[in-house]
Amino acid sequence: MKNKKILIALPYSLLSEIDSAAENEKLSRSEFIRTALKKELKVLRDKKIKEELKQGYIAMGDINLSLAEEGISADNEQLLTYEQKLSESE
Questions:
Q1: Are the C-beta atoms of 27 and 17 separated by less than 8 Å?
Q2: Contacts of 10 (CB under 8 A, 6+ apart)
Q3: What average pLDDT values come out for the chain (90 residues) when binned by 10 residues?
């Protein structure tokens, strides 16, 4: 994979913290920053997916409630028919 060099401005304190963490992890500054950015992008993607799932479940809630109510109504009708036939056979 080709790399593209970019120029970013960081406060000295943040750069110092990055360099220290990179050294502790035995990574170059660039590799540490790439890894950190990948992790942050994954967090953002996961957050977006979670929100989309939440919205989907909310939308499906109304549909599921409607289907459940239709099913209960149909079950009640069948139960009444069954009880009528049962009482007629006695």
A1: no
A2: 18
A3: 92 98 97 97 98 92 85 80 79
